[in-house]
Amino acid sequence: MSEFPEPSSEYYVTERFELAGGQTVTEFVAGPFDDPDDARHARDFIRHDAPSRRVRCVEVVSFGDCLSGPKEKAARSES
What we know:
Oligomer: single chain
Shape: flat
Distance between the termini: 25 Å
Low-confidence stretches: 69-79
Strand order of the largest sheet: 2-1-3
Mean pLDDT: 83
Largest sheet: 3 strands, antiparallel
Helix content: 25-40%
Radius of gyration: 18 Å
Strand content: 35-45%
């Protein structure tokens, strides 16, 4: 058994906004999706409906629950 959990991926559609002063903010618009094609279809639908929106697909990779490390698991099993 590996010490590190297997990574898992979720896919989202995000939109970027520019603020005064040149800063940007990225906001999640749709998702999570298990399949990247579903995220692409959502992005394409948004672009078709509102071409001026700056949307893109992103993949979020996670490596398990950060709070479930060895110490946390040991504490749960003792109670």
